[in-house]
Amino acid sequence: MSEHSLSRIAAALERLSPPPPPAADPLAHPAYVWREGTLVAARAFRPLALELLTGVDRQKAALVENMRRLAAGLPAHDVLLWGARGTGKSSLVKSAVGALQADGAALALVEVAPDALAALPHLFDLVAEAPRAFALFVDDLGFEEDGAGARTLRSLLEGGAEARPDNARLHVTANRRHIVTREFGEAERAVNARDVLDDRLALADRFGLSLGFHAIDQTSYLAMVEAYARARGLPFEAADAIAWATGRGARSGRVAWQYVVELAGREGRTL
């Protein structure tokens, strides 16, 4: 086989299975993505200003304080943020990190996909010796049953023979308070249902800090819209904001932000 043919085959194989991205310096960037077992710098980390997140003052204070302890090398909890969709769970994690970074805290965000939990021990090894703290962010996590993923997370939280590094803590968002569905399959109904339920609830219990987020009323929704719009100098009418939410069948921080994006587009403004 000619050298040209071998080169073509090698190029085709590389296209099918590209090499992993180069590893990023764990001290050089404000946020990262854990991708294919490699720490990759986030392309654009622009969290909302913490003060723009309204209606979640209690959750905000608790999360920021816990992250502050983490960044200072003090004991800190793994955090579960649970509740209704679009209520600000993910935004609060990113905004809290951004706010503490602005205050000079040695803290970075690392986003981890829910299907990459098994690779977390490798990530722990990479960051353990870094003179910096890491908020490991797992967004929108949920298990339909107590399978391998749930058992992996439980093991990571309770610690095995090798302890997790003190400078890394998990920050998990979930729509369900207990992460794992409470419905039983046929096999589980054949055993003691109470035992199965207790085992599933034990996963959520392993988070030292659990913060609930709930559906908001119209007044809170309009306060969110006003905060976003005022920060960007955008005019709005309450009736129009309400109509926008009605058309989507929900009032939430996410819908409020989507409405502000719509306002900016109408005004020919960038965000």
Automatic annotation (TrEMBL):
Transmembrane regions listed in the UniProt entry: none
Highest rank taxon of the organism: Bacteria
Keywords noted in UniProt: ATP-binding, Nucleotide-binding
Classification via InterPro entries: DUF815, P-loop_NTPase
Entry's Gene Ontology molecular function annotations: ATP binding
Pfam families: DUF815 (PF05673)
Protein name: ATP-binding protein
Organism: Sphingomonas morindae
